[in-house]
């Protein structure tokens, strides 16, 4: 019995594609339809590569014969289209000769920086949580403190407010014994019985 391999992260991931950028890229627009078709296939391969944005399969760079096999195109045609894309400046090449997409690399860096900043921000929030809770405790009414289940019940604050208002600490205000003032307009209103 063979074990089923878990789906890779690239199999479940989606790639950001901006049609306006695709149509608006002047270097890419000057390329032939075949070159643009090869480029979109290359982008799909680069999206699932490691590191993302480089034209690689595993740890090996994809050379023209391999790319020809992956795209089901003759090697001579792939070499011609790659040359066209290179001359127009659509892609860049590392010092080791690996083709890469500048936009994917920039997106990856922005994503990594954003993740670092988010981690720092959330770490600060958890550090300051107790301080913020204590600072905000004086601003909250007893009712909001009771409704907020995550906020610990501060009985000393509630008891202090209850003393000022002559009420028990845990009971809501009771206005049932106060007389009702009937306005003149209300006293003239006829009560209809159904």
What structural keywords apply?
194 residues; mainly alpha; two-stranded antiparallel sheet; 55% helix
In which order are the strands of the major sheet placed?
1-2
Low-confidence stretches: 149-153
Give the DSSP E fraction (strand runs of 2 or more residues): under 5%
Terminal Cα separation, in Å?
A: 79 Å
**Fraction of residues in helix:** 55-70%
Tally of DSSP helical segments: 11
Main sheet characteristics: 2 strands, antiparallel
Summarize the structure.
This protein has 194 residues and is mainly α. The protein is 55% helix and 4% strand.
In words, what does this structure look like?
55% of the residues lie in helices and 4% in strands. Helix 4 (33-47) crosses helix 6 and helix 5 (64-71) packs across helix 6. It has 194 residues and is mainly alpha-helical. It is built from eleven helices and four strands, in the order H-H-H-H-E-E-H-H-E-E-H-H-H-H-H. Strands 1-2 form a two-stranded antiparallel sheet.
């Amino acid at each position: 019995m063979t074990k089923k391999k878990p789906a890779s992260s690239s199999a479940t991931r989606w790639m950001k594609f901006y049609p306006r950028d695709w149509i608006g890229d002047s270097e890419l627009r000057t390329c032939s339809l075949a070159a643009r078709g090869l480029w979109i296939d290359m982008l799909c391969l680069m999206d699932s590569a490691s590191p993302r944005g480089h034209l690689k399969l595993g740890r090996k760079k994809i050379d023209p014969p391999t790319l020809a096999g992956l795209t089901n195109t003759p090697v001579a045609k792939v070499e011609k289209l790659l040359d066209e894309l290179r001359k127009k400046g659509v892609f860049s090449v590392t010092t080791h000769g690996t083709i890469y997409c500048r936009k994917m690399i920039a997106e990856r860096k922005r994503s990594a920086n954003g993740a670092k900043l988010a981690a720092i921000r959330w770490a600060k929030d958890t550090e300051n949580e107790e301080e913020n809770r204590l600072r905000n405790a004086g601003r909250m009414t007893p009712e909001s403190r009771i409704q907020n289940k995550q906020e610990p019940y501060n009985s000393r604050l509630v008891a202090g407010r209850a003393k000022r208002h002559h009420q028990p600490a845990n009971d809501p205000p009771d206005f049932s014994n106060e007389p009702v003032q009937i306005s003149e307009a209300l006293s003239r209103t006829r009560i209809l019985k159904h």
